[in-house]
Every structure is written in C-alpha cells, then in structure tokens.
Amino acid sequence: MTEATIYGLAGLAVFGLGLMGVLGAADRLRRLVALNLCAGGAAMVLVASSWRPPPAAPDPVPHALVITGIVVMVSATAVALALIRRLYSLETDTDA
Amino acid sequence: MTVLLAFDLLLAASIVGLAAATLLMRDAFAMIVAFIVFGMLMALGWARLVAPDVALAEVAIGAGLSGALLLRTLAHLRGGSLSAQGGASVSAPANGATQGVNALLAGLATCALGLAYLGAPQNVPGLEAHVADAMPESGVTHPVTAVLLNFRAYDTLMEVVVLLAAVIVVWQVERGLAETPAPALGTVYQGFARVALPVAVIAGGYLLWIGAEAPGGAFQAGAVLGAVAVLGLLSRHVRPAPAHRPLARGAFVVGTAVFALVALGVAGAGRVAFEYPPAQAKTLILLIEAMVTISIAATLAALFHGRAPVAVSREETDR
Amino acid sequence: MPEFAPDPMTLAILLPLFGAIAAFLAPRAAPLIGLGAVGAMAAAIAAVGHAVAQAGTVTVPLGGWGAPLGIELRADGLALAMLGLTALIALAVGLGALSAFAGEAPADGQPMPRQRAFFWPLCLLLLTGMNGVYLSADLFNLYVMLEVISLAAVGLAVLGGTVAALRAGLAYMYASLLGALMVLLGVGFVYLQTGRLDFAGLAGAQGSPALSAAFALMLVGLALKAALFPLHFWLPEAHANATAPASALLSALVVKAGLYILLRLAEAGPFPGEAILTLLGVLGTGAVLWGGVQALRAERLKLLVAWSTVAQIGLIFVALARAGTEGLSDSWRAAALLILAHAVAKAGMFLAAGRIKDVIGHDRISELDRSAVRPALAQLAFALAAISLIGLPPSLGFIGKWSLMEGAMGAGNWHWIAVTMAGTLLSVAYFSRALTGFLRFDRVRAPLDEHRGWALADAPPVVLAGLAVGLGLAAGPILAVLDLGRPFGVTP
Amino acid sequence: MIDMPLLPLIILLTSLGAAPVLLALPERSARLRTGLNLAVAAVKVALVIWLAWKAAHGVVYDLRLSVLPGLDLHLQADPLALMFVALSAVLWLVTTIYSVGYLERGPHRARFFGFFSLCVAATVGIAMAGNLFTFLVFYELLTLATYPLVIHRGTAAALRAGRIYLIYTLAGGLALLLGTLALWGLAGTTDFVPGGVMAEVAAERPGAAQALFVLLIAALGVKAALVPVHGWLPIAMVAPAPVSALLHAVAVVKAGAFGIVRVVYEVFGIDLAQGLGVTGPLIAVAAVTIIYGSLRAMAQDDIKARLAYSTVSQVSYITLGVALASPVAAIGALAHLIHQGVMKITMFMAAGNLAEGLGVKKVSQMDGVGRAMPGTMAAFTLAALAMIGLPPFAGFISKWYLAQGGIAAGQDWVIALLLGSSLLNAAYFLPLLHRAWFRDATPEAANAPARRKISLWLAAPPMITAGFVLVIGVLANAPFSPLEWTRFIVTREFNGGL
C-alpha cells in the first residue's frame, strides 16, 4: 500500500461524502460546502496520481491542474455565495 | 517507514472524518470551521505526497479564502454576527428515507470508483518525462511553474478568465445590494493587521519571485496579496469608494489582458500562439506572472468584498 | 499552422475575450464593442472554415509543444459547424439584446442599468468558452472551458435579478458545478490510466476498470450539463426565468457544450458499449415523454419553451444512441443535425417569446388570446420555429428527424421510430396551445391592434426562425461541412 | 419559343414568393394587395399555359435539389402534374377574385391572402412532386397553410374545427412520413416512376409491400376523406366560403386523391398493386365511401354540410377509377379530378353568395332564392345537374368513362354503384333546386332586408366556373380539353403496364 493508494482512496471517499452532501443538503450554504468537498476529493485523486515512489520526483502536470482547479473552485464558490447573499436579501425584503 | 505509513493512514482517516464532520455539524459556523480545518489537513496530506505548490495553494485559496468567503456570507445571513441566533442557524435535513437513498447511491458510486481506482495500473508514467525534456526551453526551472505558464499556459489563461467571470458575475448579482455590516476586526486584530500587512506584502512578492525556481508562483503570491487586501478591508484600512471602480476594473482585467496579448503577440514568424521565443521566455513569463498576481489579488479581495464599490448616499436610489 | 500569424482558431477564442474585457471596462460602449467583437469572431471563424475546407482537420499546438505535453486546438467539420452556429446565434441574439435591454440611456455619472452593463461582458465570455470547447482537444482544458461557460451562463441566467431567476440560477450553478466536478474526477481517472490528457491518448487506450469509471463519471457529469432526463431538473426554471436573450443563449448554445463533448468523447475513445447506448436511448425517451407532458402543463409561454428543450435534448440522445446501423460512426450525423436545428429554432423561439411577453405584457398561455395587441411578426417567428422543432418539412428539424428515423429503420429499430413519432405528436400538442392563443380573437374586448410594435427587435427572431425552416433545404451543404476532416473516422 | 428549364420552379415560386409579401403588407393596403394577388394569379395561369404547351411537345422539366445523400427534392412537370397544376392555377385565379369580394373590409386580410397563396403554392408543389419525399414536404406545407384559413374567423367553434382538422391531417402526415421512410428503406428510392419502383421488394417481401400500400393509402386517405377517416371534412366547413371552395375543389381533398393516383400508378404500378391483391379492398373502401357520403348528405339541412358530404362521396370516384385498373376507368378518374373541382367550387361559391346576400345557410331556408339571386342560382343549378351526371355536362363524362372502365375490368357491378350514387345525388340536390326555383319565399324571408349587396366580385366567379362546367362537358373531345389531356396521361401511365 503506497501513499498514492491511501490518499487516492481518501480522496474518493471525500468525493463520495461531498456527493452525498450535495444530494441531501437542505441548506444552500451546506450544499456549497459539500461541492467544495467534492472538489477537494477530486483534487486529491489527481495529486495522488502524480506521486512516484521516492526517490523519483512527482509528476508536475497534475499539480498544475490542481492549482488551476483550486482557483476555479474558489471563483465558483464566490459566485454561488453572492447569489446566496442576494437571494437572502430579496427574500427577507419580501417577507418583511 | 511503518511510522510514516501509520501517519499517512491516520491523516487520511482524519481528512475523511473531517469531511464527514463538515456535513454533520449542525451549526453553520462550526461547519465552516470544520471545512477550513479539512482544507488544512488536506494540504498537509499533499505535502506528504510531495506537492508543496498545491499544498500552498490549498492553504491560501482553497481553505483560507474559501473559508473567509463562507464566513463573510454567514455573517451577512446572520445580520453581521457569526453566532447562531435562535433556531435560524441550520435548516432541517431532508427526511430519513431520502437521506438513506442518497447515502446508498453515493456510497455505491464511491465503492465502484474505489474498486476502479484499485484496479488502475500502478505507476503508469505520466508526462514527467516530457516535462523534464522540455524544461531547458521553458524559461523557468520549477516544473510546476513551467507547466502552468508555458506548457499549459492556455489553461492558465482560461483559469484567470474564470476569475474575471466570477468577479463580473458577483458585481452584477450584488449590484444595489444594501450594505451589510462587514465583520469588523477587534482592536487587537487591528494592531495585528498593522504589523501583518507589510510583512504579507513582502511575502507575496517573494513567493512570486521564487516561483520560477521553487514552489510558489503567481497564484500563491496573488492569494497572499489578496489576503492582505482582505485584512485591509476588515481592518477598515481600505474603504472601497466609487472612485476606485475604474482602478478595480483595470486591476481585474490586467492579468487576462496582458496574458492574452503576450500569447497572441508571440505568434508569427513560424511560431504559434503561446510559443515564447526562448530568449525572452523568462522575461515574458515573469511579466505575465506579475500581472496575473495583481489580478488575482484584486479579484480575490473583490470577491470577498462582494459588490462593486458604491457611495453610501446613492445606495437607496440604486436599489 | 505557422503560415497564419496568429492562427484563426486562437483568434476565434481570444477575440471575444478581448471584447469582454473592453465591454467590462467601458460599459457605455458595451453594445458597440460586443457587436464588433462578435463580427470579428465571425471573421476568424470564416478563416477557420477556409482552413478546414482546405485541409480537412487543422490543429494548432499551442505553445509549440504539441500533445501530450501541451494543449492542441483542433478543428474539423463538426467543430466548424458548431463555430458557425455560435457566430450566427451570437449575432442574432446580440441584435435582439440591443432592443431588449434598450431603455432610457442613463444621465452622465449615473450607473448603467444592470442588464445593459453586464449582458455583453458575460455574453462574450460565454462565447470564449463555447469556442474553446469546440476547438479543444484536451480533456482538462475542456473542464476549464466548461467552468468558463458555467460562470458566464449563471451570470446571464440571473441577469433579470428576480427572486425566481436567482433561485433557478443558484440551482443551475450547483448542478453545473457538480457536473463539472464529475468531469474533473473523470479526467483524473483517465490520467491515472493513460498518463495523458489529450484525446489522442484516449484513442489508443485499452478498456479497463479505471477507464470505465472515467467514462461513467464524465457521462453523468456531461448528462447533467446537457440536462438529460432525469438530470434535467435545473433547466426549465433557469431557462424560463432568464431574460429572453439570455434564455436564447442558454438553450441554443450552453446545453450543447455538454452534448458536443459527449460526441467528442464518443469519437475519441473506446466508448462504453451497446448497453450504455441503449440506456442513453431510454433516458432520451424519458426526456421526450416527460418534457412533452410538462410542456403540455406549463402555464407560461417561456416555461413551455424551456420544457420543450428538455424533450428535444432527449431526442438528440435518442438519435445519438440509436440512429444508425453502424453505431456512433453513423448516428452522430443525425445527432449533429438535430443539435444545429434545435439551436437555431430555439434561439429564435426564445427571442420571439420574449418579444411577445414585452408587447403583451405577460406570457400566461391561457390569456394570450385576450390581448388586443398582437405582435404579429414575433408570433410568426414563434410558429416558424415551432415548425422546425416539431419536425415538419422542409425544416432543418425535419431533416434531423428524418435521418434519425432512417437510421433507426435501417437497423430495424422500429421502437425508436415510435418514440420519435410520439415526441412529434406531443410537440404538436404543446406548441398548438400557444399557436391557438395567437389565432383566437373572440375573447378580445378592445379593438384589435395586430401590427403595433413592428420593430428591429422582430428581425432576429424572424430571421432565426426562417433559417430554422429554410436551412432544411441546405441540408446537403451542411452535411458536407460536417463531414470535413471525417469526424468519427468515417467517409460519408 | 425560348427554353426555360426553371419554369416549374418559377411557377412554384410565384405563389410561394407572394405569400410572405402578402403576409407582411399592412392591413389597410387593400388595393395593393388585390392588385398583387390578381397579378400573381394571372401570371401563374400564363406560365402554366406555356408549360402545357411545352409538355404537349414532349418536354418534361426535371429539377432536383439534393437534401440528404440520395434523397432529393424533385420537381417534375409531367403531364399528370400539369393537369393538377392547371386546375389549381385556374381555380386559384377565380377564387382569388371571389375572396377579394368576400373579405371586403373583413379582419386579418393580410393573413388570409398570405396563407391562401401559400396553400396554392403547396398544391402546385404536390402536383409537381417528382418523388414521394417531395410530395410529403408539400403535403405537410399544405396542412400548415390551410390551418390558419380554417380557423380564420378565430371563434371557439372555428378553433375547435381547426383542432380536429389538425389532428386528422397531422396524423395522416405522420403516417405518410412513416410510409415514405419505409419506401425509402425498402426500395431505396422514393421516385415516382410510371410502372412503379416496388417490383423487386414485392417479389421478396410481399407482406411488407402490402403493409406499405395500406399505410400510404391510409395516410393519403385522410386528406382524400375516405371513410372512415373523413370526419374532419364536414367539420372544417366552418371556414369562410372561399376557403371551403378551395379545400373541396383543389387543395386538400384533391391532394389526397392525387397522392393516391401517384402511389397506385407510380410507386407500386397498377399491375403490381393488383398482383398484391390490394386493389380489391381499395375498391371496396371507395364504394362504401361513395354510398355513405351520399346517404349522409341527404340528412344535412345545412347547405355547406350537404355539399361537404357530397364531396366525400364524389372524390371517391377518383379512388374508385384508379383502383379499377383499366385505362378507361383511369381516364374517368383523372377527368373527374378536374370535373369535380370545377363543379364543387361553383356550388361552394354560390352557397357563399346565398349566405352573404340573403343570410340563407340552410336548405329549409332556400324557398324562392332563385328569384332573389337568379345568376348565382343558375350557376348552382348547372353544377348540381352536372354533379348528378346529366349529359352533356362534365359530371356525365367522368361517370360514363368510369362505368365503361368497370365493364372493361370485368366489374359490372360498378354500373349499379354509379347509378345508385347518381340517384342519391339527385335525391339530395333536386330538393334544393326545387325549393329555389319552384317555391315562393316565406314572408319573413321576403321582407328581410338584403344583408349585403352582392358585388360583381362575388357574383361573377360562380358563373364563370359554371361556364367551365358546361364547356368541358360539351367540348369534351376538343384538343386540350381535360378529357383529352387525361387520355394523353393514361397512355403514358399504361405504356409499361398494359
């Protein structure tokens, strides 16, 4: 059992948990966090795939992909949060 | 070896456990904190997998900035405070049967994926040999930076475009949104911020510079500088005003614009887009990185701040 | 293509990006910048067309590295057709947006109305993403492009700013994000198995559990993005509540991105076998029936149109899965024709629906016939678009359905023909709900005013809908374009 | 004379091109609209004459546009096509004149004339379709173009009728689509070729060939109003009078009947159809329709409903003649395609004049209308007598040939059928004529003010067409008469067959 296997499987588990959260969450914020978990899990699988048994250096390409993925995900998160905030304001306005 | 193996197993288990905890926490604030800790642990795991660049990016952006964004939104939803008020904290989860079906589906899918993962061939050579071959012509010495800004520069350009798209959408969505009391820092943190700001700026510049040879680079640097700006916003050192809007717009687009212009500009004379002349490769990459850093920092700060700067007096008419 | 400096494919992607930047920096000039950028993009696409016509398939190794290290852009007939479609729709929707978002020009110093200020940057970013998807030959790059599209599309979907639009937009965002993340994990599995990210790497790969997992993930993710039943839940509200030009872009182009990538995956890889294809056909059938029934029940015109998108997407999947004796190397043409037909007709229909709503003041189907004001040209456009979507001759939709049924019949699959027929009947039923409202007059109290409000805004829907019908006659040339560079490795 | 290879396309485009212009004309530009309408209709008649002249000299124009590999849109001006084109061109001109008068100051005239024009374009396309695929294209276009005409009044009743019309015709259209696909799949071509294209298929898979025949005839039978799929026709008569006239005489039912001609002669070939044993059932269906339509017509009090059921019956003569598989019967069938059109259009326009001028819509209100509107009623009478089959009018000619054909085909009972049908025709038309000419107007009707002055636009067209009824009957053997032309066609169709 190598590091890659351990973290790769952990990544998949995190992705699965995130998936469950996305499907099951009743709350907007929680669903978004669950999506972020999915992203983390997917990133972990990619990073795990880059690992090489020492002394070989890891494959740099998945690292670059994951960095890109992280930035993309924070952008998406920010947009979703803006929607959530706006919706909250509109909904409380109508309620009041 | 066994100690390390045990550590790896423990860490992986903690990561999964925290992910589960994130979903199970009843209070939204606790959920976000659990998510941030999850991100930190994941970064630690990536460090164990010899991926320091990714770990840095995750700490700074994935866990750090995402966490800050989530907390800021939670504060908005709770009228300025982060603590739960009454029963409004967390909505009830869906009913048991639905949850069960969801869990079953997700669990089955995960098991199938796990089996497929275990069945995948080990140690398939990736692209590292190609990267190693091309490194001398890349203009930089750090492989990850070479991939990001040269071999797969097109991806990176589009990633900056995603950031730009995000800030445009956020400005559009939040236009005319009433000002909510942003969580202000207490006096202690005010003092901390005063000390931290210059240090962080220097750290950011260093990260950018070092990225050419060692872990670090535009994204990490941009994240650190973005964090500086966030601190500035929180400590009220920076107060966005309408007059800042053109400047902000410029800062958002400068990374994308320069990147795309360079990419197109190098084309011709037998070269295609993104194909830097080897002699100028390092200069061009550094130029792009600097501009992208500015854009990332400004964009991340703007994403945190939310809406476009609006003068207080005009708020009502704008709505 | 070193003889081009810079090459037209890169330009087709980057020109709208520059346009988006300029439109964001100068909101006041945004419409002008936007139309200019679309025009420039169209010119670049024409140049791509020239190159493809000359060489069949053209590739650009961005950065000069070439696959697998670098990212390659690749264009063939299929990509070219989609690029041309995008340019056409963008131009028409852009013109439609001019008047849809025209209001009083703000005084100096006042901010622009939200819709005018933000439509163009988002639209142009969307075009960047769309063109990027058509031209990409790299899996991870496709993921990034999908995210560009997602964010721009969500921005467009919530442009109206109503609570309904924002709710639908958030649901759309989540669905889109989840779909993209599944694609990302799928890409991870591909890399695990093959160590490459380009399509060529897929083509040479042997089947394995990891690759099956990758395909399953990407298939589900893309089906979510393309709104294949039962993963369509996000679509109707998102498309129905957006402003008309945005709806037109979302339904004509954005859902096609997922479909297009699926086509490309099917072309490149050892695509999952017969059972999966049948499953896709069955789900498509579900979409045709369920979308049709929901469209019959919809109370608002735009919601009806949105549900019809669900049904039509289902039909495209039926075509992809089942229209041919030779499997995918046969059926992709029928699917491509239906994609083109649906895009043109649906864009025209959404613009027409928006115009009808503007003129009449609402879009409740049951009260369309009470209005004394009848936007005659918009109604005509709606009817023409409906002809193509129903699949009546000689429209492009008819040609698509014909090639679907011809292929299915050749393979002896009469039940897929029955599905197509059922879908056709359902579409007649739901569209005639709207058309009857246009033509009924005995419930009107006030004097009729059929021709009020002829405006430039009528032109884009009429032209698009007219094309949706008329392009059926040009099916021969369209097929010739599709076959350039022999997608799916087959000679016609 | 100069050669003009695109002539069929130009004839098609005259009305197809006029349609959008007419649709876009503002409602108030009445004169421009009328002028354009008449000009286009007249030009079309002239072009058709030119085409006929070329065709008589053996020139068959042939135009193709490839749509899918191997599948063409195909226009072909063979003599059979020309016959139908000529009928529609001439009657369109007349009906246009009538419509101008009928719709004076009515609402939605732009829409009406636009779709009217489209409707004729579709008919011309159906006539000149060189393969079943092209036929299908124009067949569907015809459905779409007539629907707005049927519901022109925009009332709930009109919309209900329109819905029923649409359900019938679109279902028929789908069946035709399926049939075309199947033909394409089985025979590899959808071309209309004298003698048919199904010989090989029928030899290998006779069952499939029979099924295809049934499917195609059922699909076309909807528009041809064969029992039991005739239900839409009587309901669709809520349409304005000129629309009914066109629907019954030229456009819709004739398109169905014409399609049956094409399918029997040029898809299957009459010999093959006989060999497959499918003509017998077709004859039976036609016979039932002839009798059933007549019986139902007798029970109708509404004039237009009576005329509608009469159409159901009369159009089936064409199917009957086609299915009898004898050249003489074929002559009768094709001649009837023209004759019935001219007769029925006269009667519908006359009925429209009664409704407009006197408010008379029912048979029971017809007492004494002959004196109130002598010209209109004279035209009506002439057409009715011809329809019954009195010599020397047009109807007699077609019935005569049909009877002869029946004998030639060894089906002597056809004479009995035709006699019976003629008696029934007399039974439902003669009471009308009796009331109109030999009874006095009821007092309230006599004192009622004329609802509307019948202008020359309305009065002239039925008289003109009544004149045609007389002329084509009397001069049946003159060159270029419908009868002569059908002889020309039939020699061509049966060349390979008999």
Automatic annotation (TrEMBL), chain A:
One of its GO terms (cellular component) is membrane. InterPro entries: NUOK/Mnh_C1-like. The keyword Transmembrane applies. Coiled coil: none annotated. It is a multi-pass membrane protein. It comes from the Bacteria. The chain crosses the membrane at residues 6-26, 33-51, 63-84. It is found in: Membrane. Keywords: Membrane, Transmembrane, Transmembrane helix. This is Multisubunit sodium/proton antiporter MrpC subunit. It comes from Rhodovulum euryhalinum.
From TrEMBL, chain B:
It is a multi-pass membrane protein. Its main location: membrane. Residues 192-297 form the Na+/H+ antiporter MnhB subunit-related protein domain. It comes from Rhodovulum euryhalinum. One of its GO terms (cellular component) is plasma membrane. This is Multisubunit sodium/proton antiporter MrpB subunit. The chain crosses the membrane at residues 29-47, 54-75, 192-212, 218-235, 247-272, 284-304. PANTHER family: NA(+)/H(+) ANTIPORTER SUBUNIT B (PTHR33932), NA(+)_H(+) ANTIPORTER SUBUNIT B (PTHR33932:SF4). Residues 103-175 form the MrpA C-terminal/MbhE domain. Keywords: Cell membrane, Membrane, Transmembrane, Transmembrane helix. It is found in: Cell membrane. Belongs to the CPA3 antiporters (TC 2.A.63) subunit B family. It comes from the Bacteria. Residues 15-78 form the MrpA C-terminal/MbhD domain.
TrEMBL record, chain C:
Residues 136-426 form the NADH:quinone oxidoreductase/Mrp antiporter transmembrane domain. GO terms for cellular component: plasma membrane. One of its GO terms (biological process) is ATP synthesis coupled electron transport. Its main location: membrane. One of its GO terms (molecular function) is NADH dehydrogenase (ubiquinone) activity. Pfam families: Proton_antipo_M. The keyword Protein transport does not apply. It is a multi-pass membrane protein. The keyword Cytoplasm does not apply. The chain crosses the membrane at residues 6-25, 32-53, 78-105, 117-137, 143-164, 171-192, 212-235, 242-263, 275-296, 303-323, 335-356, 377-396, 416-441, 462-482. It is found in: Cell membrane; Membrane. InterPro entries: CPA3_Na-H_Antiporter_D (IPR050586), NADH_UbQ_OxRdtase (IPR003918), ND/Mrp_TM (IPR001750). Keywords: Cell membrane, Membrane, Transmembrane, Transmembrane helix. PANTHER family: NA(+)_H(+) ANTIPORTER SUBUNIT D1, NADH DEHYDROGENASE. NDH-1 shuttles electrons from NADH, via FMN and iron-sulfur (Fe-S) centers, to quinones in the respiratory chain. The immediate electron acceptor for the enzyme in this species is believed to be ubiquinone. Couples the redox reaction to proton translocation (for every two electrons transferred, four hydrogen ions are translocated across the cytoplasmic membrane), and thus conserves the redox energy in a proton gradient. Belongs to the CPA3 antiporters (TC 2.A.63) subunit D family. This is Multisubunit sodium/proton antiporter MrpD subunit. It comes from Rhodovulum euryhalinum.
TrEMBL record, chain D:
Residues 129-423 form the NADH:quinone oxidoreductase/Mrp antiporter transmembrane domain. It is found in: Cell membrane; Membrane. Its main location: membrane. Residues 71-113 form the NADH-Ubiquinone oxidoreductase (complex I) chain 5 N-terminal domain. It holds the Pfam family Proton_antipo_N. It is a multi-pass membrane protein. This is Multicomponent Na+:H+ antiporter subunit D. It comes from Rhodovulum euryhalinum.
